[in-house]
Amino acid sequence: MNEKQLEHFRQILLDWKQELMEEVDRTVRHLQEDANNYADPADRATQEEGFSLELRTRDRERKLLKKINETIEKIDEDDYGFCEACGVEIGIRRLEARPTATLCVDCKTLAELKEKQLGG
């Protein structure tokens, strides 16, 4: 992968990271501003369920932020775009679809098949 392509993916990852961080800020403000103490238990439960859903979403995004940071480190170390399982280049189209991909299509397919066999 050439320098221009690496910079392209770095920018995609940085933009994605910025969007996620803005969502975190919005969530914090939302939780602080909308935290009403409803007298009605049903209203309180509805509000708490909404907060719970929002926090679960942010937790998934926190994990994604970690992967984004790890991927940016790989770009910095000139180790980006190679499959962690077999070492071949992952491919631009796959990386465009999932910039944090660590496995090539073949290894990812095998991993998913193994997961299905073990899980079900």
UniProtKB/TrEMBL annotation:
Kindly give the Pfam families that the UniProt entry links to this protein.
DksA_N, zf-dskA_traR
ZnF start-end (dksA C4-type): 83-107
Q: Does the keyword ATP-binding apply?
A: no
InterPro entries for this protein: DksA_N, DksA_RNA_pol-bd, DnaK_N, Znf_C4-type_bac, Znf_DskA_TraR, Znf_DskA_TraR_CS
Q: Does the keyword Cytoplasm apply?
A: yes
Location comes to: Cytoplasm
Domain annotation Zinc finger DksA/TraR C4-type: ranges: 79-112
| UniProt GO MF annotations | zinc ion binding
Biological processes annotated in GO? regulation of gene expression
Supply the Gene3D superfamilies for this chain.
DksA, coiled-coil domain
Specify the domain of life of the species encoding this protein.
Bacteria
Domain named DnaK suppressor protein DksA N-terminal: residues: 5-75
Q: Which UniProt keywords apply?
A: Coiled coil, Cytoplasm, Metal-binding, Zinc, Zinc-finger
Q: Which residues form a coiled coil?
A: none
Per the record, GO CC terms? Answer: cytoplasm
Q: Which HAMAP family match?
A: DksA
In the record, the note on similarity to other proteins reads: Belongs to the DksA family.
Q: How does it assemble?
A: Interacts directly with the RNA polymerase.
What the protein does?
Transcription factor that acts by binding directly to the RNA polymerase (RNAP). Required for negative regulation of rRNA expression and positive regulation of several amino acid biosynthesis promoters. Also required for regulation of fis expression.
Protein name, entry field: RNA polymerase-binding transcription factor DksA
| Organism, scientific name | Bisbaumannia pacifica
